[in-house]
Specification:
This protein is of the alpha/beta class. 32% of the residues lie in helices and 17% in strands. The protein binds beta-D-glucopyranose.
Amino acid sequence: MKFFRTIIAIILTIFYVHATAQKDNTKMNAFINNLMNKMTLDEKLGQLNLPGAGDIITGQASNSDIGLKIRQGKVGGLFNIKSIEKIKAIQKVAVEESRLKIPLIFGMDVIHGYQTEFPIPLGLSCSWDMALIERTARIAATEATADGICWTFSPMVDIGRDPRWGRIAEGSGEDPFLGSQIARAMVKGYQGDDLSKNNAMMACVKHYALYGAAEAGRDYNTTDMSKVRMYNEYLPPYKAAVDAGVGSVMASFNEVDGIPATGNKWLQTDVLRNQWGFKGFVVTDYTGINEMIEHGLGDLQHVSSLALKAGIDMDMVGEGFLTTLAKSLHQKKVTITEINQACRLILEAKYKLGLFDDPYKYCNEERAKTEIFTKDNLTLARRAAAESFVLLKNKNNILPLQKSASIAIVGPLGDSKANMVGTWAVATDFSKATTLLEGIKNKIENKDHVFYALGSNISDDSIFENRVNVFGKSLNRDNRNAADIIKEAVDISAKADVIIAAVGEVAEMSGESSSRSDISIPKAQRDLLNALMNTGKPVIMVLFTGRPLAIKWEAENIPAIMTVWHPGTEAGNAIADVLFGDAVPSAKLTTTWPQNMGQIPIYYAHKNTGRPLEEGKWFEKFRSNYLDVSNDPLFPFGYGLSYTSFAYTNTTLNKSVIQPNDSVEAKVTITNTGEFDGDEIVQLYTRQMVGSITRPVKELKGFQKIFLKKGEHKQVSFTISSKDLKFYNNSLKYVFEPGNYKIFIGTDSNTANAADCVFQ
Ligand code: BGC
């Protein structure tokens, strides 16, 4: 009886939710129909226009050029304005001085936090902690919406397998399964459970699609890949965001199958809307339409019509829609139905956000005063940073450090506020970030035991530094000669028990238009490391970076290495927490780190080839390998050390033959065998042994982050069904293929701990 009552309750709830959504939609449609009936063609095109903020940034809103356009109904939204007063003033022009009083939507690149900055996304992904990631997005949304912003150009979910590409920093690494989970968590975090709440913001998944596959890692470069690869490896995270209800999508700059994503109907309509059922709007990336002229597809009028017909709804910055679509309509190159559809989707987004009810709902000075950069938000930023640091090496357990030790902090990133937060931090105040030097001083009692020296410039090449530094962040350049700067560092190190070398990349060495062909640590810093090693003191390398680096020499020579990415506002405090053992490292890499540049692209889920090299070997003639480097990565995907150690025992499957529609339970016992309590990220990979197409040698299909006190053990169990083993076959059908599988469970993607089974 109870069972039936529950079933009936569930049916009624589904019916109610459906009916309510229907009613909401009916109301929304009626509202928008009514509004659109009053709109002129120019006003409709105005809604599709997302210009740069231009002179508003520096001047008064209402008498700016943009102010004039807004008054004329030629602007749908604006972005990257940080000023609640300005946003209010501009919104006032829109809703009081334009003919139809349609509110503007205000966007921003809120990529890894608003004012409280969390680690760069690549770093945060290494936490493998979905609840934490969702929480960071929630806080970012709370802060941004308290300051006038209701739309973020995030999450960036481009699969990144080429560390030369600077934007690998903005995504979640190389894996589609993990990337999809993170995409979902971030959309949920930003949008919350009700987009109309005043602390929820609309997310925009980007850059759709394949932007991370730019040839040679050069930003904006050509991409070209098979559809099988797209569907199986590159598209899943975008689809996951769509499935999670993301409100908008940003088209990428690159081409897909010879047609730039911005003009690609197959991508923007066939896949996104028809196959995946996306109902929101699509915005271009910055001047994405205009760039199709350079791509060689025609003049502005032509490429603008191409974009509209492909399914683009909003034109960022380039004003191709605003200036050419009326002519194209007149010449019958586009239809009014296409323009109406785009306009409707923009108005729907504004409606769903509740902007028509209250255009100032995100401009609440009280909230701005009390909800931004709060103590709680900083506490989470500190924890998130500590959870993102990957301990790569810890010879003889040199870490954690004693708080009584005397410490030399040396290196160009040891005391650099401007470079703690990393790429894309539009709204933050860099001066509020803690540096490593400050973090360590905050932690230990005897401040006289802490010494600091610059040690080296970022690079000896000041012209390279100028290229890096177009935004003018301080790089602390010291014009003394390099040997003198090193000598000063070596001298202060003599007073210390241990040296912490703070080296790597400054913030703008990764991110947009920051590709590098050489991803090693610049020579000036390597020279410093060498000199520090020669002191004979223990050296700990704290590596700041926005990408995997080629650090074979460092990995061979320096006893302890921890990569901290760009950790965010609480950088120094979080690093000190981990260095002194107040937090135990648990993060694991979400990208493979190569031994050298020639191995790129290198990723764990590669194919076997017809001539695989035997496990553990370096070279064999007529096998797939190199003469001068083994096939192994320097550090594999999923890798990361702890201060404690974990043993994996008793890996079992509850059955070895799995009947159709059944599932298998894989279990393993994990024991904390070391001296610290700690978290372990347990990973499950599968391999399909025989397929209708070639299949990767391993694919991540599950993971769990577990906490174990020292000496404690736990059984971890995963359930795998045929649904989890589906992939896109050669006809792009999403299929499961029965047959032999291996199930691996281990501490990283290198694990050989496997059990065999047959899925029928
Ligand atoms: C970037 C986007 C960003 C946009 C708006 C572009 O240059 O590619 O990721 O969202 O600018 O700032």
